[in-house]
């Protein structure tokens, strides 16, 4: 059974149709990267999976369950954005534990989860700091920590690194890769950065104007691009 199954999904905003019968079946533990030019519908697709945007047509099935009408809270997914939106008045630990505290999880359990995530992300010495006392990369890590502690069924990443400078982006890319190896969690990662796509993806989904052009391994897309659009994006000479 697929971890996430997207079946003939359409999306319109009033008269503007932005996604056209998208089909995508994602295995458990798979790292899927969605690529494509700005405005092609990547964020909209991710937001529909998260439940932040209504589905116009088709079905989204997560863990075997149709979720079209399920509110975001009940989907057990964690979304990581480029704007980390940390709570400025809370410490690192406070930010990471917030969603668990809302859910009235036992204190000891929360402490263990936060310590575990802080350890994975190299934040252990910083847990008492406030966001303003952190660098951009550290803040991004806290945002990831917040997602990890929830033990989601899947991580949804929407261009999480696009605000960072090149050096930090490279470092965080390695961090995300490590995290994925360690947690083995299903991920859908949106980027328009070709290097991120090539280094992180088990499979890349190339989108253009609300349709999927090709789905394949980084090697497939590089060596056997389905069309000029994919070739142009992935950077092979075809
Ligand atoms: P991407 O993330 O690939 O850059 P988006 O999913 O954000 O693209 O947007 C896809 C299309 O949908 C764009 O044409 C965008 O203008 C449009 N769109 C996105 N959100 C809305 C909205 N809330 N209302 C109307 N149009 C929207
Ligand atoms: Mg977007």
TrEMBL record:
Keywords: ATP-binding, Nucleotide-binding, Transport
A single GO molecular function term of this UniProt record: ATP binding
Lineage: superkingdom: Bacteria
Keyword Transport: yes
Domain ABC transporter: from-to ranges: 4-234
Family: Belongs to the ABC transporter superfamily.
Name of the protein described by the UniProt record: Sn-glycerol-3-phosphate ABC transporter ATP-binding protein UgpC
